[in-house]
């Protein structure tokens, strides 16, 4: 099929499509035009019933009571320690219907966690991951592309809002202005039927031809999200990393009455953290990769890289890393240990890339 | 050089086996599908099992990575090479090549002393993708010319590469 496949959380996933682009071209297509991602590996959990909101409030750190139907927000499910089960997008469909989009590699764990924790509510939580295929249409020309395939007026959908409409002839499909690229774009949810998925995928690509749309794989998805400083589970967030360390407290509403992880996070907030996530830009030649050590001048480890790569749009070598707060000031110069050598990097403001305002 | 099986940038996300969806993916191809480009392995070169090529010119060996290697790595963004004068040993690492998605070591096809380094690759690593046999990496003064005879011929390497598809 012209794609290089890798095993990603048990999925056979395209890492790139060499025949039409390759990672760098795919990344640039999303920043400057439009790229199409097959992201059906993402999981979905629905919450329905009179106490759906209560269940969501209990298990999600953001405040879902602020959402209105058709609105979504970024959030996370936490362990009692204030560390991450997973990061999620919460969609409010109706007063008694919420919808989580969760990660591929964590979906069985997430579904188990939800089942274990919402039993006391009059709410039915269902893992509907296998019912949907998700296709992401990302980039400044994403709206123009998708508009050709839907009766919904996409200009009326704001960032992190969604609606239902006809897409590629399929009725009542969820269309969300969300993504994992730091760029404007949409995610569409279609039935996970092989023939339908394939038809929609081909129709989207066909409609995208005039915009130079190309299929994009996991490689570009990773470099795009890194430039935009979006967390990847198992890297910036995990069961060992808490909300304040990951600097995701903006989406954590401690003023909420109650949620799993709240007592621990109140303590952490009062006590402070011992490490914090920073953005690095390499000063000397080299690419900091996931797991590489951050060392002091004497060579002792003081932190580690969570994600690192060439940043294809910014044309720099960038990384995210956990370091002690004392070393996290913008402009601080740190050493990344690359194959036994100390290579200098400096702490820079994040996100590395922010899309231009319209 | 060793082509990694799984990209390090995408590793450790846990394992979930969802067989029917993997099955489904086979159908979700894309319309820009092209015939797989035929790989090119010039017959005047010798090849290693680690996907380097060696060209013998008198008592000098020129070293680079193969078409198969550059294709497997994808967009190459960084090449790290030894200094002139460095002793390299057959089968041992002498440098590093990085693509967006992977880091791979480069292994010396033969033993000898580095006499020249392709400095151009520091600022233009993409040349390795564009022209893997023009984008040489190091020149080595060969210690034992007979050593090159142990390496694979073009035909043998082509078979070896195609088996890993």
Q: Main traits of this protein?
A:
A: 358 residues; alpha+beta; Gyrase A, domain 2; 6-stranded mixed sheet; 20% helix; 34% strand; globular; B: alpha+beta; OB fold (Dihydrolipoamide Acetyltransferase, E2P); disordered N terminus
Quick summary:
With 358 residues, chain A is of the alpha+beta class. Chain A is built from 7 helices and 19 strands. Helices cover 20% and strands 27% of the residues of chain B.
The helicity of chain A comes to 10-25%
**What is the element string of chain A, with H for helices and E for strands?**
EEHEEHEEEHEEHEEEHEHHEEEEEE
Rg value of chain B: 18 Å
Question: Main beta sheet of chain A, described?
Answer: 6 strands, mixed
- Give the radius of gyration of chain A: 21 Å
Number of strands of chain A: 19
CATH superfamily of chain B: RNA polymerase II/Efflux pump adaptor protein, barrel-sandwich hybrid domain
H/E element sequence of chain B: HEEEHEEEEEHHEH
So what's the oligomer here?
heterodimer
Q: Which structural class do you get from the secondary structure elements of chain A?
A: alpha+beta
CATH class of the largest domain in chain A reads Alpha Beta
What sort of overall outline of chain B do the alpha carbons produce when their principal axes are compared? Answer: globular
| Number of helices in the DSSP assignment of chain B | 5
CA-to-CA gap between the ends of chain B?
Answer: 16 Å
The appropriate CATH architecture of the largest domain in chain A is 2-Layer Sandwich
- The span between the termini of chain A is 36 Å
What is the CATH C level class of chain B, in words?
A: Mainly Beta
By DSSP, the count of extended strands of chain B is 9
Architecture blueprint of SSEs:
The complex is a heterodimer of chains A (358) and B (165).
Chain A: E1 4-8, E2 11-16, H1 23-32, E3 35-38, E4 43-48, H2 52-59, E5 71-78, E6 84-94, E7 97-102, H3 107-117, E8 124-127, E9 132-138, H4 142-147, E10 162-167, E11 170-176, E12 185-191, H5 194-208, E13 214-216, H6 218-227, H7 262-271, E14 276-282, E15 293-295, E16 301-311, E17 316-323, E18 333-338, E19 341-348
Parallel strand pairs in A: 3-13
Antiparallel strand pairs in A: 1-2, 3-9, 4-7, 4-8, 5-6, 6-7, 9-12, 10-11, 11-12, 14-17, 14-19, 15-16, 15-18, 16-17, 18-19
Helix pairs in contact in A: 1-6
Chain B: H1 19-25, E1 46-47, E2 52-57, E3 60-65, H2 67-73, E4 76-80, E5 87-88, E6 93-99, E7 103-107, E8 112-117, H3 120-123, H4 127-130, E9 138-142, H5 154-164
